[in-house]
Specification:
By secondary structure, the protein is α/β, with parallel strands linked by helices. Helices cover about 30% and strands about 25% of the residues. The strands form three sheets. It has a six-stranded mixed sheet with strand order 7-8-10-11-12-9, with helices on both faces. Keywords: Hydrolase, Metal-binding.
Length: about 300
């Protein structure tokens, strides 16, 4: 959408329109309804003037200093992150803390911050769908469908946490794990696997981020392998012990554990594309997906061989 402005010399000069932050927020909330966020979550606008124009939007997994640096250097008006800056209530945003300091930097630079967390996990073309697409799942559905909306209405059928689907062709656990490693951003953790590497896998469940609370849903779905992040020793051990007790050493679900950051990063491209499309009639917006790795781990030392 382009307006025109008349100069004193009576010539017409095009003026490019940009959507307001309030308009961008409404559009984000149509894509990722806050009502689908978990009750403990903190989503929505963190900083920013709803009346300001938005020309550039940066998408990132984490609201951390290096992402703020990138946004300010690029001249972004808004950062959209997956993870919240403040997940618990705070009583001060003084710049005496690292989070308070980040807020002050963003406000001084005129950069808004918006968070789409578990509502983006659950949404169609959200975190779960992006992860499922990255590793090639078809015929998929939510692992845990979304409950009814607060007004009693139904969410779209594809709304819910995680996805379960199938590979177009069965493969070995080894080859599948390699596919996952190739599809996701490189991290120091890489990909950890629990199970018989030569076993055949076809049905796959995925959850972006920390997913060991959903083992029961994975078992109920009949998945051969589960891709998620942040797997802890005891839950993972118990799941594999139960699988072997009930189905033998080749019994699933097997586990593919990836870095939390890596499991959620594919969504950023979907979010940037979908928001740009929805804003097309409201004005010109430039988007960028941050490629700065915000995974906190910086090195991995392999175990030393034993004699």
């Amino acid at each position: 959408m382009t307006a025109v402005r008349r100069r004193a010399a009576d010539s017409l000069v095009p003026v490019t329109a940009h959507p307001t932050l309030a308009h961008v927020v409404r559009t984000l909330e149509a894509l990722y309804p806050p009502s689908t966020a978990e009750g403990w979550d903190a989503v929505g606008l963190v900083t920013g003037d709803p009346a300001q124009q938005v020309r550039k939007i940066l998408f990132a997994v984490d609201p951390v200093a290096t992402v703020a640096d990138e946004a300010i250097e690029w001249g972004a008006d808004l950062i959209v992150t997956h993870h919240p800056l403040f997940l618990r209530p705070v009583h001060s945003i003084a710049a005496t803390t690292f989070k308070g300091s980040l807020v002050h930097r963003l406000v001084r630079a005129g950069v808004g911050l918006y968070v789409a967390h578990t509502n983006a996990d659950a949404a169609p073309r959200g975190v779960a769908d992006a992860l499922a697409d990255a590793i090639g799942l078809v015929d998929r559905s939510p692992l845990v469908p979304a409950p009814s909306a607060p007004d009693g209405g139904a969410h779209p059928a594809e709304t819910g946490i995680g996805r379960v689907g199938r590979l177009e062709e069965p493969t070995t656990l080894r080859a599948f794990a390699q596919r996952v490693a190739t599809a996701l951003p490189a991290t120091e953790q890489g990909v950890r696997v629990a199970g018989d590497l030569d076993a055949t896998v076809s049905t796959v469940a995925v959850v972006g981020g920390s997913g060991d609370s959903l083992f029961d849903a994975v078992r109920s779905a009949g998945a051969d392998v589960y891709v998620t992040a942040d797997l802890r020793h005891h839950p993972a051990s118990e799941l594999r012990e139960r699988a072997e007790f009930e189905g033998g050493a080749a019994g699933g679900p097997f586990l593919v554990d990836v870095a939390h950051f890596a499991s959620e990063w594919p969504w950023l491209r979907y979010a940037a594309a979908d928001l740009t499309e929805r804003l097309a009639d409201a004005g010109t917006v430039e988007t960028r997906v941050s490629v700065r790795r915000t995974d906190p781990w910086t090195a991995r030392i392999g175990s030393a061989p034993r004699a």
